[in-house]
Amino acid sequence: MTLAKVGAMESAEATELLTSSLNGYKLEAQDAMSVVDKISSIDLAAATSSYELATALARTANVANDSSVSFDKLLAMIGTVSSVTRRSASTVRRSI
Hints:
This protein is mainly α and 96 residues long. Helix content is 75%, strand content 0%. The chain has one domain (2-95). It is globular, with a radius of gyration of 12 Å.
């Protein structure tokens, strides 16, 4: 619910994006709030949104984890690319 409110999205969509991100990094449900906190922190610090971050993260988490890219590093890369390029989340995920 927190991601839905912070990201101004429907709760079902927020749940899907968060679950995909958690699954991609093989994280547990108790890690969900930490993930939301990190997304929110980047949202506040960069010219990007929680929705864009969560969308790109959900679509890249599995491949990044398989490639030994840490969760924090992936989220930082997504935040940077999104903020600098101002491209859509689907374009950002292809840039990572």
